Amino acid sequence: MKLHYHLIAQIISSLRDVFVDRRYADKVVEFAFKKHPKWGSRDRRLFAEAIYEIVRHWRWYWHLAGLPDSEHNHPELLTPEKLWHVWSAYWIMAENELPFFDEVNGVRRGAIIERSKQEVSPALRHSIPDWMESRLSRELGAAWPAIRETLNKPADVYLRVNTLKTERRSLKTRLAQDGFTTETLKEIPTALHMRQRYNVFGMAAFKEGMFEVQDASSQCVAPFLQVEPGMKVVDACAGAGGKTLHLGALMQNKGKIIALDVHDWKLTELRRRAARAGVDVAETRVIEGTKTLKRLAGYADRLLLDVPCSGLGVLRRNPDAKWKLSNEEIDRLIIEQQDILTRYSALVKPGGKMVYATCSILPGENELQVQKFLAAHGDQWTLEEELKINPAETGHDGFYAARLLRKPAAPTPPAVVEAQETPVEAPAQEA
Ligand SMILES: C[S@@+](CC[C@H](N)C(=O)[O-])C[C@H]1O[C@@H](n2cnc3c(N)ncnc32)[C@H](O)[C@@H]1O
In the UniProt entry, which residues are flagged as the active site (predicted)? Predict the structure, then answer.
């Protein structure tokens, strides 16, 4: 296969952006595509595949390149020379011939193949940091190896049909007419699975707001909140609004959704997306302090807490998270999640419901959080239902959601008829 030097040089430079500048892999790919508008579909595919595969299997290719395992996550030790060697290991393992570039002159194919046959630890073989391997095998036990294997595979693309503008059958037909094949998912009525990889954001149907790109698991969260048209809903960690838009469609654009987030720029993106999708019922508010929440106390029929989390359920989409997360960061997130759950639950009116959701597979971020909350607030809340999506069983992202009911206020006791005051005899005057 003929390779252009500048394409591989861009791969090396983009890997540096991910591992040294700690940028997200998807942003790095997007940036490179914008920088090289003349790349054809073959070069774009080669580029994106190399970035995702190398980031996903970084520790393994680092080892195959003959570099010391203890240095695989030390950005300060990363040099362009090492990056060329890691890319070479990836390229050889994908059964390709190395090109005649000076940078790969010293690479020995035989040594790489030889190393690939040696016995190594599961964490190294599956490119998982040691701390993560220990934590996940401790928390998930026998379920972890199968989940680990799934999370190391490329993610499929799913569309969520925007039922405010179309319905699934019509969208499927429309996409087929435009040359795109999709499949319906029996268990998720809004989902279409794209078999081939396309730049979906360039499609006319996307620009017209007919669909959003959203994993099948993520599409289960908004319906789980059991919203109805006309309700008052708060989406408290709304971000760029993936779930807000879905809630708006389920509510048939009737009622109100208050979309909150601590980042204004995410809410700006939410408004842009809502306009495209035709969602009129969403109002955005930045959380600037306790006042924003106090004003909404007891307001919501439904509350969605799609809390910040480790993202361990979506590693297929964001493989760089493996190299950026730490035990300490997860512990910090667990404290933040419990704080959000406790403080924001006051937004729900008696008889209302909230969903606590994460895209994590760690019980410590999921069911254990809900149990802790109920242990402290079980007088006011009950657990209605839990949803645990195991990526190894479904092939979709790992997700968790729990729906809790705020117990209806106890009926006010009938007014007690005040007993007529019997005049108290004036105490005898002390002598
Ligand atoms: C998992 S993301 C939400 C994704 C979004 N719901 C969606 O479907 O696209 C979590 C969001 O919580 C926000 N966040 C972080 N801390 C928060 C807090 N204390 N209160 C509200 N939102 C917060 C983050 O900015 C982030 O956008």
Answer: 359 (nucleophile)
